[in-house]
Design goal:
Number of domains: 2
Strand content: 25-35%
Bound molecules: N-(5'-phosphopyridoxyl)-D-alanine
Helix content: 25-40%
CATH architecture of the largest domain: Alpha-Beta Barrel
């Protein structure tokens, strides 16, 4: 595979990053994952808007302008022949002597991109549905910034696997924040779609925004409010959203079936609507 590192397209074996890179030493970096479907980038503008926001919140310089970042995405998709999959982008504050204080102004940020080929639209998991378990949310308090500080979500994912589940829903003050790398949703018996409002407690998912818009356009009722694991277990349906999962039904929470324990009709419909629009 070809990857992009600081200005150059190189074979992955030849790509290098400094051991002093602040992304490596301090997790001082942010990232975006954009899906490719039929060779085209989905919601690129949304991902760039969130990247700008993450950079601004951390007072980090942009590594390149947006037109350039778009052309790097396109070039990498073309070079690696990606029809369906993801483009991963990471920006860090760059390499500098190890110091908790930020490096001097003018230190060049690092920019890395690579692709992953993955069947995202024809995913068998969507037919089966996912199982999730609840874990306490022990991440830092600024989850609205998409940092590469992903150790706790990784531990939560391993906890889910140890408990024979696909993923974990994190809980804080009795309420679900989100999944390890996705936003969490439920659908009530009366058809109302519920997801947590945007705040510093969760990542503002680009897929989340798209699904809220599509649900509204299709005339479905929705409300943005937090919900508990107990409420989710008693819901008619549940699902997650992310760039890579799109809309993915959740059929079990902490071992208890959600609704009939199979992917629900509205979750399936929302997945279908999302994919149709993305295509
Ligand atoms: N994760 N919440 C968290 C904690 C996430 O890491 C993600 C995305 C989302 C969904 O955001 P979006 O719809 O913009 O993808 C919610 C990416 C896909 C990842 O880490 O691979």
């Amino acid at each position: 595979r070809t990857v992009y590192v600081n200005g150059a397209f190189v074979p992955e074996e030849a790509a290098t990053i400094s051991v002093f890179d602040r992304g490596f030493l301090f997790a001082d970096g942010v990232y975006e994952v954009t899906t490719v479907l039929g060779g085209r980038l989905i919601d690129f503008a949304g991902h760039m808007a969130r990247l700008r926001r993450s950079l601004a919140e951390l007072a980090m310089d942009a590594p390149a302008d947006e037109a350039e970042i778009l052309s790097i995405h396109r070039e990498l998709v073309a070079r690696n022949g990606i029809e369906e999959g993801m483009v991963y982008l990471q920006v860090t504050r760059g390499a500098a002597d190890r110091d908790f204080a930020f490096p001097p102004a003018g230190t060049k940020p690092s920019l890395v991109l690579f692709t992953q080929e993955k069947a995202v639209s024809d995913n068998p998991a969507a037919e089966k549905g996912l199982t999730v378990v609840s874990v306490p949310d022990q991440r830092w308090a600024r989850r609205d910034i998409k940092t590469v500080q992903l150790l706790y979500p990784s531990l939560a994912k391993m906890e889910a696997k140890a408990r024979d589940a696909d993923d974990a829903w994190m809980v804080e003050n009795g309420l679900v924040t989100e999944g390890t790398s996705n936003n969490a949703w439920i659908i009530l018996a009366d058809g109302t779609i519920v997801t947590r409002p945007r705040s510093e407690a969760i990542l503002h998912g680009i897929t989340r925004s798209a699904v809220l818009r599509l649900a509204e356009e299709a005339g479905h009722r929705f409300v943005e409010r937090p919900f508990s694991i107990e409420e989710a277990k008693g819901a008619a349906e549940a699902f997650i959203t992310s760039a890579s999962a799109f809309v993915m039904p959740v059929v079990r929470i902490d071992g208890a079936p959600v609704g009939a324990g199979v992917p629900g009709p509205l979750s399936r419909r929302l997945r279908q609507i999302y994919i149709e629009e993305a295509r």
